[in-house]
Design goal:
With 150 residues, the protein is of the alpha+beta class. The longest helix has 40 residues. The radius of gyration is 19 Å and the shape is globular. 17% of the residues are buried.
Length: 150
């Protein structure tokens, strides 16, 4: 008995899963390379800046930000350290919780994000959306909804 059968997966099911993983990695690598080349900005940094820009007051508690960007608390701390050194983000104490910290997007961070966003959006268009077409986009949306992806 093969491992696939023992675990209840068919070859086709496992193939679909692996294709999805490879597509995500391929697209992510492309976006990362383009952002680094054009803006010296890693994809994870772009994601953090975007989350902050889209939040009220351009700020989020560190725990909430870590959840949104899918990083560990320690991974986010190291990333915020780098962004703070570059002047793109500041840390602010939380008035209601002495242990809590906010990450806050600076004006320089907002400018860097605005400069990088066209590159990011072009990458999404060329590496994903254009390959799907309108019908494919609707299908992926329906699938993501079924999988309860945000």
């Amino acid at each position: 008995m093969t491992l696939l059968r023992a675990e209840g997966l068919t070859t086709e099911e496992l193939t679909v899963w692996r294709m999805l993983q490879r597509a995500q990695v391929r697209i992510t690598r492309h976006l990362e390379a383009e952002l680094l080349l054009a803006h010296d900005l890693p994809l994870a940094s772009y994601d953090v800046l975007t989350q902050l820009a889209e939040s009220p007051g351009r700020r989020l508690r560190m725990n909430d930000l870590a959840d949104r960007v899918l990083l560990s608390r320690s991974g986010l701390t190291r990333l915020i350290d780098r962004l703070q050194r570059d002047g793109l983000v500041e840390r602010e104490a939380c008035e209601s919780d002495a242990r809590g910290l906010f990450a806050v997007l600076t004006d320089a961070g907002a400018v860097r994000l605005a400069d990088a966003t066209p590159t990011y959006l072009r990458g999404i268009r060329s590496q994903f959306l254009d390959l799907l077409g309108e019908q494919g986009i609707r299908q992926v949306h329906d699938l993501a909804t079924r999988l309860d992806l945000p």
